[in-house]
Design goal:
The complex is a heterotrimer of chains A (about 500), B (about 350) and C (about 350).
Chain A lengths: L10 E10 L2 E11 L4 E5 L6 H9 L6 E6 L2 E2 L5 H6 L2 E4 L11 H6 L5 E2 L3 E2 L1 H15 L14 H14 L4 E4 L8 H16 L3 E5 L3 H7 L2 E6 L2 E7 L5 H9 L17 E10 L3 E9 L3 E6 L5 H9 L6 E6 L2 E2 L5 H6 L2 E4 L3 H5 L6 H6 L3 H4 L7 H14 L16 H13 L5 E5 L7 H16 L3 E5 L3 H7 L2 E6 L2 E7 L5 H8 L9
Parallel strand pairs in A: 3-10, 3-11, 6-9, 9-10, 15-20, 15-21, 18-19, 19-20
Antiparallel strand pairs in A: 1-2, 1-4, 4-5, 7-8, 11-12, 13-14, 13-16, 16-17, 21-22
Helix pairs in contact in A: 4-5
Chain B lengths: L15 H32 L6 H26 L7 H18 L5 H25 L4 H20 L11 H8 L1 E2 L2 E2 H19 L1 H11 L1 H6 L4 H27 L10 H11 L11 H20 L6 H37 L1
Antiparallel strand pairs in B: 1-2
Helix pairs in contact in B: 1-12, 2-7, 2-8, 2-10, 2-11, 2-12, 3-4, 3-5, 3-10, 4-10, 6-10, 7-8, 8-10, 11-12, 11-13, 12-13
Chain C lengths: L29 H5 L2 H19 L6 H26 L7 H17 L4 H25 L4 H19 L10 H4 L13 H19 L1 H11 L1 H6 L4 H27 L10 H11 L11 H20 L4 H33 L6
Classes of the chains: A alpha/beta (about 500), B mainly alpha (about 350), C mainly alpha (about 350).
């Protein structure tokens, strides 16, 4: 399955540029996709991959550059133009209609009809079944899309692309939310598509997947094309260096600290169908990482400790004080802070001003005599904007005007201003540009050096390895390994995360 | 739903029963309402035999017809995640205009009465649809404003002069009281609209677009569905049907004053929601909504016939509505849980 | 996703420059502050006053003020809790039905010989219970408030109809009967308006100057983020519906006193007027935006307008038209620039394919 270098490329994007106001999201977006190849697009978050994908999708229009599909220069003015040109996009969050059937989702707007232009449901379901058969998966076309797993939703999207005779399939981090079995199924589907002569491009942060399934990689950094190479010609180290643009050490400052007293003591907590029998401790001056695949229950554990999610068994104690379940306020009063996974949905009120966001978790402390003064909110925000080196226009601007990294600083400021004893931080640097990433790491490191206890969840293994003093690995809601900093390696974590305690690695 | 295609179904078989159960539950909404109608009917008849008399049944069907007709249009709008609160006012003003046309032109043919009603209603629907889609203003606010504006216009037009039966030609009034094989003509007309609308909503692409828009607006945009056009059409049809309702109002009551159609908006929305249409769009059927209108009216009449007290009607309708949405909620939670556990089982395989 | 500092060269990432730009001095352009909706409402209020005075010589009199206040009083009171409910992204359509039901409860008990104070207490209790029903269904069962309150609207008025089929005829005790129809002695202020004023000040203080008030905006804009900031979203939702029920029942008592009789049909259709007043006050139907000042101004405009039109013997229908028109412009005007831009872009960008 070598890429046919002699064949003409199916799709070429050359020197595409895209700016949003003053922000240059894409400076030089270039990629070539050949028929029958699986092509990985790699880069740090903020490297411009998503912008490039959206240009291919017709969602954004490039400010400059050229797009050729099958040798013909094209301009996409909308999603339907891309679709008509045979380019199908599968987004990270599949966009299905939950109330409609699987078959209707596939054929929306193109339902097979009979005389009088009425929809032929039998033919539609049969056609959907046929597409699923081609993909080698089993899914009932007549069931509603509501309740499908993310993996099945992706399959529906792929089936849609296939039914559109798409020759170029672009997938934005398709494996991020899948279990191991589902990833295998997805790769076999991709193999099928490739065998049919389609080009598959996908974004992934899991390099082992890239090596397992791709023929070529293209690497981007800071909105620019860096290089394209056959996968067998580049090593992991080379890829990472190209992505990050410098050595890794600088990204993960790590001060040596001696762990102190136990801050968080989790004893056998569980919640049916989510996680069970979770016990661990976090001490002053140490970072404990929760590692594992997406869906292993890491965030759920963190949220249950903080009290957002319920837990039905076990005890959580913070500095000797037992926390009641499902009561975030009690956790906050005990000195716990949670920087959540989804900054835009959970961390910030995007349309609220920056200063009000920073003060949102401290309103009760800021009030004097029950009354809240704008000036006290403002001074809290000014103080933490300075300490965290926030880059902003006005503190009265909506949080949505900030870049991802600065948004994360606002969330950090919101919680650090409460002077917490335990900081739970879920995906501390997701969607943040490299420079700010290092800054966030430095902030966390200095907090720990000052004696804070940190529980960190991260899907980025380098971050886990670079930052954590201890690593707890979760698999399907259970802790499968506890690794010291010395024991933790990419391999040992991945094994435990896949549920393998011994034997061959995944 | 089984077809003869020999697609691999081995593993699917574990899901099919569930899907059938889900589908069955959804269909059960219409069945459930129908059963309730029968239960109420039988109970009321047991208490008072006259309830089952031809005359009483005719009244029952006629009383439900106008709201059922409005429920058809409202369903189309609500399915797209919008709402039309102006229908009551549109009924009022079209009824008056139709009545006025007959009063001022006694020789006007009957079909023109309908045409005027439908046309005027469509104009109001088109204006609402334009404002909602072009200005992207929440339809709740626009149609609330429309409710007042149109009611005000109606008041200016009526100006204290009531249309009375003498102004309405016999042939037109006949639609309101004549029967075919004992079934009121007006009811048959509404039935025809319901059947056609149900068929269209199920079988045409543009109608399925309405469900898609309400189910996931962003995805509808990505799928290239002309959302604005479709939403506009839904409001247009809702307006036209409200206009038709106005014309039928004249035929049925032969008397129009400024209060005609007042308060219908809530009756209609209540019927639509009881009928299983999700208030935030995406699902529900025209048949369910129309049946719910009939159910609400049956309860109404049954209470009167049982001499309990006609005053109980509203309280029961309200309780029924609250019960219906609470029931829907618990049902969807249960289905979601079952699907999830099944998904989990599937994953473990 | 906009970043204010753009790095032209990746190399610069190696040594992060001191990037603190926290000098927050840029002030908002004065004209931007000037076109806030509240300012527009002030202008509109002045305009209505001018229109009112040109139409009638006796416009700027205490009597005008009294009747304007008397007519709007209950609507104004009900608008305050509704404002907060709309702020958190919900709606309560049962307000007028609760007004009728609580009035009916009071009327029935009074007619049956219960002491007046007890009857009033029962009316207020009715409001609490009804509000708690709405709140429970919305906050704890997670049902859409629009559907719930359409249901309870019908239910409340239905119960009122059952317990009080005909309007009460027993006069209320003389010492309170005057509360509904006479101003506070020595002034031209009707009691209901005085109650509203006190409540409006309290609401403004609560919404704009307390932690809980701030959290209403957070809930309205992004309930999940509010939850993660430790705000008890469910409890706030429940509490606001209970408060709404209570204040509507208070309005119901005042309404009955004003009419010297309780009736199940009291305030029929008034829920939409209350909603219109709140929305016209600049409160976004999607939640998270709006001020008490805006709603107070909106109340004032509607009151003056109603009074002016009544004094000029304009039909009630015109008042409906004016209400509808005001409501429409309150949503159209803020959206117009965006629409204009979109239409222009559509013209400028022909769907071409090179």
């Amino acid at each position: 399955m070598e890429p046919r270098a002699t064949a003409d490329p199916l799709l070429v994007l050359e020197r595409a540029e895209k700016s949003f106001g003053p922000v240059r999201a894409l400076v030089d977006g270039s990629i070539e996709l050949f028929p029958g190849e699986a092509h990985a697009l790699l880069g740090e978050n903020g490297a411009g991959k998503s912008t490039l994908v959206k240009i291919l999708a017709g969602v954004h229009r490039a400010d400059a550059g050229e797009l050729r599909v099958g040798g013909v220069p094209l301009v996409f003015n909308g999603a339907s133009d891309a679709r008509d040109a045979g380019v199908s996009i599968i987004y990270q969050e599949p966009t299905l209609f939950p109330d409609l059937t699987v078959a209707e989702n596939i054929y929306m707007g193109r339902q097979p009809t009979v005389a009088g232009r009425r929809i032929d449901r039998r033919a539609m379901n049969a056609a959907a079944r046929e597409v699923f058969a081609r993909l080698g998966v089993v899914l009932d076309p007549a069931r509603p899309a509501r309740g499908l797993s993310v993996a099945d939703q992706q399959i529906v999207e792929i089936a849609k692309a296939l039914s559109l005779n798409a020759r170029v399939l672009v997938m934005d981090e398709p494996t991020a939310a899948l279990t191991g079995v589902e990833v295998q199924r997805l790769f076999s589907v991709m193999e099928t598509l490739r065998a049919d002569g389609a080009a598959v491009m996908f974004i992934s942060h899991r390099l082992e997947e890239v090596y397992a399934s791709c023929q070529r990689v293209t690497i981007m950094r800071d909105g620019r094309f860096v290089r394209t190479a056959p996968i067998e010609e580049v090593s992991v180290d080379e890829i990472i260096r190209s992505m990050v643009g410098r050595d890794l050490d600088a990204l993960f400052p790590k001060s040596e600290t001696a762990p102190g007293e136990v801050v968080l003591d989790v004893d056998g907590i569980g919640e049916d169908g989510v996680f069970s029998d979770i016990s661990f401790q976090v001490r002053r001056g140490e970072i404990v990482a929760l590692a594992g695949l997406v869906g292993a229950g890491r965030s759920e554990v963190a949220r249950a400790v903080f009290g957002i999610d319920p837990r039905s068994r076990g005890r959580v104690t913070v500095l000797g004080r037992e926390l009641p379940g499902h009561r975030p306020r009690a956790a906050m009063a005990a000195g716990v802070a949670l920087v959540p996974e989804d900054r835009r949905q959970q961390g910030l009120v995007m349309d609220m001003p920056i200063d009000q966001n920073m003060a949102l978790a401290s309103l009760d402390r800021l009030a004097t005599g029950g009354l809240l003064r704008r000036s006290s909110e403002r001074s809290l925000a000014v103080e933490w904007a300075r300490r965290l080196q926030l880059k902003f226009g006005r503190l009265g601007n909506a949080a949505s005007t900030l870049s991802g990294g600065n948004q994360q600083k606002v969330v950090l400021g919101k919680w650090l201003s409460r002077d917490p004893q335990l900081l739970i931080i879920d995906e501390p640097t997701r969607g943040i540009d490299v420079g700010t990433k290092a800054e966030v790491h430095r902030i966390i490191d200095s907090l720990v050096a000052d004696g804070m206890a940190v529980l960190m969840i991260s899907s980025e293994l380098p971050e886990v390895l670079g930052m954590a003093d201890r690593v707890l690995v979760l698999h399907e809601g259970r802790i499968t390994a506890e690794l010291s900093r010395a024991e933790a390696t990419e391999d040992s974590i991945m094994r435990a995360a896949s549920g393998l305690t011994s034997g061959a690695a995944a | 739903m089984t077809t003869s295609t020999s697609a691999p179904r081995s593993a699917a078989s574990s899901r099919t029963p569930l899907k059938q159960r889900v589908g069955g539950v959804l269909r059960a909404r219409e069945t459930g309402i129908a059963v309730l109608i029968v239960v109420v009917f039988v109970a009321a008849t047991a208490k008072n035999e006259a309830f089952a008399s031809a005359n009483s049944v005719q009244q029952l069907l006629l009383g439900a017809s106008l709201i059922a007709l409005l429920a058809v249009g409202q369903t189309m709008v609500i399915v797209t995640r919008n709402v039309d609160l102006s229908v009551g006012s549109v009924v009022g003003i079209t009824a008056y205009v139709v009545g006025m046309s007959f009063r001022d032109n006694p020789d006007m043919p009957v079909f023109l009465g309908f045409l005027i009603g439908i046309g005027l209603g469509a104009v109001f629907g088109a204006i609402t649809g334009m404002v909602v889609t072009v200005f992207r203003v929440p339809s709740l606010v626009v149609t609330l404003a429309g409710l007042y504006l149109i009611r005000g216009l109606d008041g200016l037009l009526v100006d204290g002069v009531i249309i009375n039966p003498q102004s309405i030609p016999r042939e037109f009034q006949r639609i309101g009281y004549e029967t075919v094989l004992g079934i009121p003509v007006l009811f048959l007309l509404v039935l025809a609209v319901v059947v056609i609308a149900a068929y269209v909503m199920r079988s045409f692409r543009s109608a399925r677009d309405l469900y898609a828009i309400g189910s996931n607006p962003a995805a509808a945009e990505l799928a290239g569905i002309p959302s604005e056009k479709r939403v506009f059409t839904a409001f247009l049809v809702s307006g036209a049907l409200a206009g038709l309702t106005g014309a039928l109002f004249v035929a049925l009551y032969a008397q129009v004053d400024v209060t005609a159609g007042r308060g219908y908006e809530f009756l209609v929305v209540a019927a639509v929601v009881v009928g299983g249409v999700a208030i935030f769009g995406g699902s529900g059927t025209v048949v369910g909504a129309a049946l719910a209108a009939l159910l609400l009216n049956t309860i109404d009449q049954a209470l009167v016939a049982s001499r309990v007290s006609g005053f109980w009607t509203d309280a029961i309708a309200g309780a029924l509505l609250l019960g219906a949405i609470a029931f829907d909620r618990s049902l969807s939670l249960r289905i979601a849980r079952r699907l999830r556990s099944q998904e989990g089982a599937h994953r473990d395989v | 996703m906009s970043e204010t500092v753009v790095r032209p060269e990746p190399a610069r990432a190696q040594e992060p420059t001191p990037s603190y730009t926290g000098v927050d001095t840029t002030s908002k352009a004065w004209w931007k502050a000037g076109i806030r909706w509240e300012s527009a409402l002030v202008v509109l209020l002045l305009l209505t006053l001018v229109v009112g005075s040109t139409g009638s010589e006796n416009f700027f009199t205490g009597t005008t003020f009294f009747f304007a206040g008397l007519n709007i009083g209950e609507i104004a009171i009900m608008a305050l809790p509704l404002l907060m409910i709309v702020l958190i992204g919900e709606i309560d359509l049962s307000v007028a039905a609760m007004l009728a039901l609580s009035g009916a409860v009071m009327g029935v008990l009074w007619q049956a010989g219960t002491p007046f104070g007890v009857a009033v207490a029962a009316a207020l209790l009715t409001g609490l219970v009804g509000g708690a029903l709405n709140g429970y269904l919305v906050a704890y069962l997670g049902l859409p408030s629009i559907a719930v309150t359409i249901g309870s609207l019908t239910l409340f008025r239905g119960i009122a109809q059952i317990i009080l089929p005909n309007p009460t005829t027993t006069p209320f005790p003389s010492e309170v009967a005057t509360l509904g129809v006479l101003p506070i002695p020595g002034t031209q202020v009707p009691y209901s308006l005085a109650v509203f004023t006190v409540l409006a000040v309290a609401t403004a203080a609560f919404v704009h100057a307390t932690p809980s008030g701030r959290s209403l905006y957070a809930i309205g804009l992004q309930p999940e983020a509010a939850e993660f900031a430790g705000i008890r979203v469910t409890r706030v939702r429940f509490g606001l519906f209970v408060l709404s029920g209570l204040l509507c029942s208070l309005a119901g008592v005042l309404f009955a006193l004003k009419n010297s009789s309780a009736s199940y049909s009291a305030g029929f259709g008034l829920e939409l007027t209350v909603v219109a007043v709140v929305l016209f006050g600049g409160v976004s139907i999607f939640g998270g935006r709006g001020t008490v000042l805006g709603v107070v101004l909106s109340v004032a405009i509607v009151a003056v307008l109603q009074q002016a039109l009544t004094q000029q013997q304009v039909q009630a229908e015109v008042q409906n038209i004016v209400t509808g028109f005001l409501l429409l412009i309150s949503v159209l005007v803020p959206n117009t620039p965006a629409v204009w831009r979109r239409l222009r872009d559509r013209v400028r960008t022909p769907p071409t394919r090179t």
